[in-house]
Structure formats: C-alpha cells, structure tokens
Design goal:
This protein has 133 residues and is an alpha+beta fold. Helices cover 45% and strands 13% of the residues. The protein is elongated.
Length: 133
C-alpha cells in the first residue's frame, strides 16, 4: 500500500526489482508514475490503482483492525480488503495474461520463433541481395 504517484523518482527497473526481491507481488496506491507502472507490469509486479479514500480506509484497517489480509485476485480482477469489501482491478488484458502465464515480451516473441524463421527464409529467397544472417 502506498500514497499518490507511487514510483515517482524511482522509475528505473531496479525499483521494481527491489520490491519483487522483497516478496512484494502487488502495490496498491491511488496513482503511479507512468514509467514505474509500465516497468512493474513488464516485470510481473501488479500495480493496483484504487481511489484515495479506499487506500485511506485500508491504511486505517491495517493499522487498527483485527483483520490484516488483503487479497489481489488477478484472475477475477478484484482486490478484497480486510472486512470483505471488494474492488475491481483495472489492468490491461495483455499484461494481465502475461502476468498470469508468467511470461514477458521476450517469451512471447520466442513463442513465434517458427513464424519468424519462416519469414526470414521467405525474405531471403525474395530478396537475395539482402543478407539477414
């Protein structure tokens, strides 16, 4: 849980690595810096934007309440707070699938290796004066 514009000034990927290395899988905040948000998604850390009053209520609940469990369910696209209130997670479908499958952009590209190699063979045949390899 964090405050407004989380990640501002920490937009390098190492900021995301540090959180992930510490075992953090999601960050809930009213807003995120754009670069941090993008880097988080690319590295499997889930940035969860929630309204500021929801974050304030969560902070109070975690500090004073008997229940301290927060559940981020990426499949159902919800976050459930202590006490049971549930809020939708708005996340791009592409990144949601990548995180759920545990893949990144490189893995996705490798998944098309046969098609890439077939293109290269056709291209070399059609353009013999261009050497791709």
């Amino acid at each position: 849980m964090a405050g407004r514009n989380f990640g501002c000034g920490s937009s390098r990927e190492s900021a995301v690595y540090a959180l992930a290395d510490y075992g953090i899988r999601a960050v809930l905040a009213p807003s995120f810096s754009d670069i941090f948000y993008s880097n988080a998604l690319k590295n499997g850390l889930i940035p969860v934007p929630l309204k500021e009053d929801v974050i304030d209520d969560l902070r109070e609940s975690l500090l004073t309440g008997p229940q301290r469990q927060v559940t981020v369910d990426l499949e159902a696209q919800t976050v459930t707070l202590p006490g049971g209130s549930s809020h939708p997670i708005l996340i791009d479908a592409f990144w949601r699938e990548c995180i759920l499958k545990g893949v990144d952009e490189i893995d996705l590209t490798r998944g098309h290796l046969d098609q890439i190699e077939a293109f290269e063979r056709r291209y070399e045949q059609d353009h013999p004066w261009v050497a791709l390899r």
